[in-house]
Design goal:
569 residues, alpha/beta, 6-stranded parallel beta sheet
Length: 569
C-alpha cells in the first residue's frame, strides 16, 4: 500500500469499494446482509459524488449472486466481487461457490462476522452475531474446502491489499473463487485512505521448445493419434488454437460426455463425437488437452497409446481422485502450447495422414447421418421427443451468435449432440450441484447482452433453482433469456439408478419408485407469469417450433421467456 490523496475519515466500507475498483471488477453481486451497510454507504456516496465504483447488483438469493458471477466470469474470465451474509449466507451459496471452483471461474467471495460481539469499543454490531450468526473458527475456515483460497482480513490497514491478493490468486491458474472474511468491526473502522495498487492480468507460462519439440515428433510418428478435451475452450483463445492445431496435424478431436464447454466446432470434419471408447484400443497417441478426468473408471487404461497431457495445471488440486496415465506433460498456457505445436506440423507422413483422414471422414459422415436419422425419427414422434427440441433450437439459433447454458442431466447428451454448437463461448454446462442454471444463464447474458442466451434445463433441475429470485434479477437488470424446460415429469437419472441396481427388486415388482415422481408439480412456466414474462407450455410436435419462435422473439424484444416442453422421455 502507498499513500494517496484520498481524504481520511471514510471507513472500511470505502476501503472495500476502493479495493474492488483497483481489482478492476465490473460488478459487485450482492445477496444482502446486515454487515454490508458500510459498503452501501460508500457506494451511495460515490454515486452522489460521481466517483468510480463497480456496478452493484442487489440480488435476493445467494445462489443467484454467485451463479451470476459464475456466468459472467465464464465469458469475461476476470474476477468479480460477491457479497454474501455471514456464515449462513456463505453456507447457502456454498454449492454455487463450489460450482465456480469446478468451472474454473475467478471471483472474490466475501462475507462477515463479528469479532467483539458488542463488548468492544465503537459502534454496536448488533446482537444477532452473538446469538445466531457466528461460527467457530470463522467462516474462512468453513470456506476452505470449496474455494481456492480462504482467509480473513483482520485489519483495516490490510483490507485493501487482502482483497487485491484474493483477486490475484483467484485469477491465476487454476482460476477459481477465493474467499475473504471481512469482520464488521473492520468495515466500521476509520480508513486512512491508503489504496491498493491496481492489479494486472496474470503473466503467461509457456512450455519450452525443448519440451515441445519431442511431443511434435511423437505426433509426427503416430499413425492413429486423437485429441480428447473437456475444457480447452474455457481458456482465452483455446477454442481457436485447438482448431488450428487439429487442422495442421489432421488429428480427430473427441469431446467426451465430461466436456463442460464448447471446445471445437461440432460440425467440423475433424470432430470425432463424444465417445472415447473406440480409441482406447485403437489410438497409438492420445493428447489430453485440458482434460481433467478422461477415463472412467479411472483405472481403465488405453491398451497401447502413449499419453501426452497438455494443461497449465494438469493435477487439479480440487479433484479428490484423478488418474491421467501421463507419459509426457506440457505445462503452460494451453492456447500457446497448441499454437507452438501447430507450427511444427511439418514433414508429415502423407500416407499415414491419408489413412486417418479417410477413417475420420467415414466416422464423421456416419455421425452426421445418425444425427439426421435421429432427428427425422423424432419429427415423426407422437409426442415431443427431446431430440426434436434440441434440433429445433439449433435451427432457430443458427447465425444468431446464441449461447446455450445447459443444466440437463438425462438429456445432456442429446443437447450437445443435436445443438452442434460451432463458435467459441457458445456452450457451457453448469458445474456442481443442480439448481444454479438460471443464475448462470443470467450472468452469461450480463456479459453478452448482444447475444441471445438460452438455458436448457430439466424439470428436476428447474425445481432445484431459486426461481423467484432469479426471475426478479432478470426483470430488475434487464437480462432477457430463453428458458427451455425438458419436462419428462420424473427425476429420471435417479430412477435409472434404482432400476439398474435393483432390476428385480421390490420397486420393480410393485411399481413403487420413490424419490422420482414430479407429476404433482404445477405448470412450470406459470411461475414466470407474475413477472410479466412470456410463457408457453408445449405438448405436441407441431406446436414446438412456433412456440420457440415466439419465445425467441419475446427475448429479442427484451422479455424473458419460459417454454415448458412436455417431452416423451
Amino acid at each position: 500500500m502507498t499513500d494517496s490523496d484520498n481524504r481520511p475519515g471514510t471507513d472500511g466500507g470505502d476501503a472495500f469499494v476502493s479495493a474492488f475498483n483497483a481489482v478492476g471488477a465490473d460488478y459487485i453481486f450482492c445477496s444482502s446482509g446486515s454487515e454490508w451497510a458500510p459498503v452501501w454507504e460508500s457506494l451511495a456516496r460515490r454515486h452522489r459524488d460521481g466517483e468510480p465504483a463497480p456496478e452493484y447488483l442487489d440480488l435476493t438469493h445467494e445462489t443467484v449472486a454467485v451463479g451470476m458471477a459464475t456466468g459472467y466470469g465464464l465469458v469475461e474470465r476476470r474476477p468479480q466481487g460477491v457479497l454474501l451474509h455471514a456464515a449462513p449466507g456463505l453456507l447457502q451459496g456454498s454449492m454455487a461457490v463450489h460450482g465456480a471452483l469446478l468451472a474454473g471461474v475467478p471471483m472474490v467471495v466475501t462475507s462477515s462476522e463479528s469479532t467483539t460481539y458488542g463488548d468492544g469499543p465503537g459502534q454496536d454490531p448488533g446482537g444477532q452475531w452473538y446469538r445466531n450468526l457466528s461460527i467457530v473458527g470463522g467462516p474462512h475456515q468453513m470456506a476452505q474446502p470449496f474455494t481456492k483460497w480462504a482467509n480473513e482480513a483482520a485489519s483495516i490497514h490490510t483490507l485493501p491489499t487482502m482483497i487485491t491478493r484474493a483477486a490475484e490468486l483467484a485469477w491465476r491458474a487454476p482460476a477459481g473463487p477465493a474467499y475473504l472474511n471481512v469482520p464488521l468491526e473492520i468495515l466500521l473502522e476509520e480508513w486512512d485512505g491508503r489504496e491498493a495498487k491496481p492489479i494486472v492480468p496474470p503473466g503467461s507460462m509457456h512450455s519450452s521448445p525443448e519440451e515441445v519439440d519431442p511431443v511434435a515428433q511423437m505426433i509426427r510418428e503416430a499413425k492413429n493419434p486423437v485429441v480428447v478435451t473437456e475444457t480447452a475452450g474455457r481458456e482465452a483463445g483455446g477454442f481457436e488454437a485447438l482448431v488450428a492445431f487439429a487442422e495442421a496435424w489432421e488429428i480427430p478431436v473427441v469431446e467426451p460426455d465430461s466436456a463442460v464447454c464448447g471446445n471445437f466446432p461440432r460440425t467440423h470434419p475433424l470432430h470425432a463425437g463424444s465417445d472415447i471408447g473406440p480409441w482406447m484400443d485403437e489410438a497409438d497417441l492420445i493428447l489430453l488437452v485440458n482434460c481433467r478426468a478422461p477415463f472412467y473408471p479411472p483405472s481403465r487404461r488405453p491398451s497401447k497409446a502413449k499419453i501426452v497431457v497438455i494443461d497449465q495445471v494438469p493435477q487439479r488440486p480440487h479433484i479428490v481422485y484423478q488418474v491421467l496415465f501421463a507419459d509426457v506433460y506440457l505445462e503452460g498456457n494451453v492456447a500457446n502450447t497448441l499454437r507452438q505445436l501447430a507450427k511444427r506440423a511439418k514433414d508429415l507422413d502423407e500416407s499415414s495422414v491419408a489413412v486417418r483422414r479417410a477413417a475420420q471422414e467415414e466416422r464423421h459422415a456416419a455421425e452426421q447421418s445418425a444425427i439426421a436419422a435421429a432427428e427425422a425419427k423424432a419429427a415423426q414422434s407422437e409426442g415431443v421427443d427431446p431430440v426434436l427440441v434440441a434440433a429445433t433450437l439449433r435451427k432457430l439459433l443458427a447465425g444468431s451468435g446464441g449461447v446455450v447454458v445447459d443444466e440437463t442431466i438425462t438429456h445432456s447428451r442429446v443437447v450437445k449432440r443435436h445443438l452442434q454448437t460451432t463458435d467459441p463461448d457458445s456452450y457451457f454446462y453448469v458445474q456442481g450441484g443442480l439448481g444454479q442454471g438460471v443464475a448462470v444463464a443470467l450472468g452469461v447474458k450480463l456479459a453478452a447482452r448482444e447475444r441471445p442466451v438460452v438455458l436448457t434445463i430439466g424439470d428436476g433441475a428447474f425445481t432445484y433453482n431459486p426461481v423467484i429470485p432469479s426471475y426478479d434479477a432478470a426483470k430488475a437488470y434487464d437480462l432477457p433469456v430463453l428458458i427451455v424446460v425438458f419436462n419428462n415429469r420424473v427425476y429420471k437419472s435417479m430412477n435409472l439408478n434404482h432400476r439398474r441396481f435393483y432390476p428385480e427388486g421390490a420397486a420393480a415388482e410393485t411399481g413403487e419408485w420413490l424419490g422420482t415422481d414430479l407429476h404433482r408439480l404445477p405448470r412450470l412456466a406459470a411461475f414466470a407469469e407474475p413477472f410479466g414474462m412470456h410463457t408457453e407450455t408445449v405438448d405436441a410436435t407441431d406446436a414446438l417450433a412456433p412456440a420457440l419462435e415466439r419465445a425467441l422473439k419475446a427475448v429479442s424484444e427484451g422479455t424473458t421467456a419460459v417454454v415448458d416442453v412436455l417431452v416423451t422421455r
